[in-house]
Amino acid sequence: MTRATALRRGLVPWLLPIALLAVWQVAAKAGWLSARVLPAPSDIAVAFWTTLRDGSLPHHVGISAERAVLGLIIGGGLGFALGLINGALPIAEDILDSSLQMLRNVPHLAIIPMVILWFGIGEEAKVFLVAVGVLFPMYLNTFHGIRSVDRGLVEMGRVYGLGPVALYLRVILPGALPAILVGLRYALGIMWLTLIVAETISASSGIGYMTMNAREFLQTDMVLLGIIVYALLGKLADIASRWLERRALDWNPSFHTGLEAA
Amino acid sequence: MMVPLRAAAPSPEVQDQATVAGKGLELAFEGVTKAFGDVGVLKGLDLVIPAGQFVAVVGRSGGGKTTLMRLIAGLDGPTGGAIRIDGTARRGLQPDVRLLFQDARLLPWQRVLSNVGIARDPGWKARAQALLAEVGLAERAGDWPYVLSGGQKQRVALARALVTEPGILLLDEPFGALDALTRADMHRLLTRVWRQHGFTAILITHDVAEAVALADRVLVLRDGRVAEDITVDIPRSARATGAPRLAELERRILSAV
Q1: What is the pLDDT of residues A138-152, one digit of tens each?
Q2: Superfamily of domain B14-96+166-256
Q3: What are the CB-based long-range contacts (under 8 Å, 24+) for B189-192?
Q4: What is the CATH number of the domain that holds A224?
Q5: How many structural domains does chain A have?
Q6: Residue of chain A whose alpha carbon sits nearest to that of B157
Q7: DSSP assignments along B194-217, one per residue
Q8: Does B95 contact chain A (CB < 8 Å)?
Q9: The complex's ipTM?
Q10: How many inter-chain contacts (A to B, CB under 8 Å) are there?
């Protein structure tokens, strides 16, 4: 492939979005589109720049990210631990699994009214909702991953003298890792979704608060800016988890080709 | 301690025996039975395999070959009777017994060297590297298992089995999935390491030609009993050329299966 064709291949996918942006810009500036319906792309850029300069955008993004990460650590960690325990000990599975499966079917956003009653509209409410949201995908995938580890490899490990701890660390956990990382990616998606909803309903800071506040004053450019920031943060989390998968699953040929093609 | 009866006295071929003596362990079965529910798979096995002997076990599928192997490895316990290794009755997994599986069962997430040194005993890296050199794969130590061919995977598995110098090596049809040329290579390699390390080898196979090519002695397992106990009294050097006696032995084994 020559450099010219490589360049063309790189550019072609961008043509349509750029054209749409151009049309949008012209339509907004010519007055065909009311700024209340859809502000011009340039207005959003200006909003981005001013909020960046006065520090309000980094402030809100920072708070949102903190809630997201805290919720992910608590809920994801709990789901991971439960998955490990239930995957390893049949007794734990008997006691816990069916209860967890029942709870899993409750849409976690449906408990928002209860959460507000329990925690008010403080930080705990948001972190709690995110934690509940990410717990189940982490739990299910970790559990499933541990259960689907090749029995033959476990048997080999036993014959070759691995004790329970070595067997767990060197055979079972690495074997479950692909499924665990799939769970993490699901969890990251749910993490942002939950946070958006929680911050829009009750918050005094964060990106969700920023957009809801802007809506009160009909600042559509700020609302769109918030949406774009959410999208970028989601994409960032996805890139991070893909990087982690590539690092951790270097040994997996199907994974290799999958990533190279993606 | 009861002295186990010898079911058959193998005639040792002195010039053909393992060169390193004393590392292999004697294996004895005393009235060993194994049943799964009401179904008896092994129905009274009395057998002595002397230290360092190479024994092949042939038989139809469902004849108890794999059950026998799992009992020796300690993956299952016998329903009745006792299995003695080096004179003492054993139960549970044995550190001096290693098993080569049908599929190589390498850990895909560990590189070749780490697979060979799976137990991580002190000084495992040097040992593992030496064993890899012995099976001709020294330069693949840093590779992931998925880049290896089927034959190479089995050679890595062989190095892994030998790294702890087992007294008994069990081979559960390890060459069944390989092509004829690779299989012949593996036969030569196995014979070489058996001579060098001196372990007692027990090969399970459905391939009668493979059994008489490799073993000192062939056991035919039928209906949970040893139906035939045949000594392969042909020097290994003469086996590759297809001696007439070899064909006769093969016929005899096939008719017994």
Answers
A1: 999 999 999 999 999
A2: P-loop containing nucleotide triphosphate hydrolases (3.40.50.300)
A3: B189/B135, B189/B136, B189/B155, B189/B158, B190/B158, B190/B214, B191/B236
A4: 1.10.3720.10
A5: 1
A6: A156
A7: HHHH--EEEEE-S-HHHHHHH-SE
A8: yes
A9: 0.83
A10: 51
